[in-house]
Amino acid sequence: MSTEYIDRLNLKYKNCIIDSHSFRGDQTITVNKEAIIELFKFIRDDPKLDFKFLMDLTAVDYLRRKKNRFEMVYHFYSLSHNGRLRVKIPISEDDCSVDSVSSLWKTANWYEREVWDLYGIKFNGHPDMRRILLYEEFKGHPLRKDYPINKRQPLIGPLN
């Protein structure tokens, strides 16, 4: 299986990459969150990678199954190379934040707001960090695995 993207990133970012693997043509790296802006600029601008399309970003809540409770997951596509790359970033519950990539890919703006709204992961440097799916008075983040499913929320009436 081809690992050309992983190999290219290992040349420059060996110290930042925690883990990597390739499965059915999709290459995945796990990186420290401190280096993501520099690394993401590289994967976007390097002609041998050319990942100009951020297809999606989301989060995973592992609750008690991993050392770091959360993991950010970014899916990239290179139109010129017809290739995919997945980048994972472990996030601890104590420091539940990561740098925003909305300055690199405009589409990240809404995706990051959605992750903030549903998981409570903050994005440092985001231009408009507010809820996007739920109303501002909503308490908590409903996709966290410890969110009480029977919890009652404040009722919001018409705005006067």
Total helix count? 3
- Level of helix content? 10-25%
- What strand order characterises the main sheet? 1-2-5-4-3
Average of per-residue pLDDT values? 92
Architecture (CATH level 2) name of the domain at 4-94 = 2-Layer Sandwich
> What would you give as the CATH superfamily of the domain at 4-94?
NADH:ubiquinone oxidoreductase Nqo5 subunit
The CATH class of the domain at 4-94 turns out to be Alpha Beta
* SSE topology string: HEEHEEEEHE
**How many beta-strand runs?**
7
What percent strand? 25-35%
What's the CATH topology label of the domain at 4-94?
Answer: Beta Polymerase, domain 2
Radius of gyration: 17 Å
Q: What labels describe this entry?
A:
single chain; Beta Polymerase, domain 2; 3 helices; two-stranded parallel sheet
Protein model, in words:
The chain is α/β, with parallel strands linked by helices. It has a domain at 4-94: Beta Polymerase, domain 2. Helices cover 20% and strands 29% of the residues. The protein is built from three helices and seven strands, in the order H-E-E-H-E-E-E-E-H-E. The protein has helices at 4-13, 36-45, 108-119, and strands at residues 17-23, 26-31, 53-61, 70-78, 83-91, 97-99, 122-124. The strands form two sheets. The protein has a five-stranded mixed beta sheet with strand order 1-2-5-4-3. Strands 6-7 form a two-stranded parallel sheet. A hairpin with a 4-residue loop joins strand 4 and strand 5. The radius of gyration is 17 Å and the shape is globular.
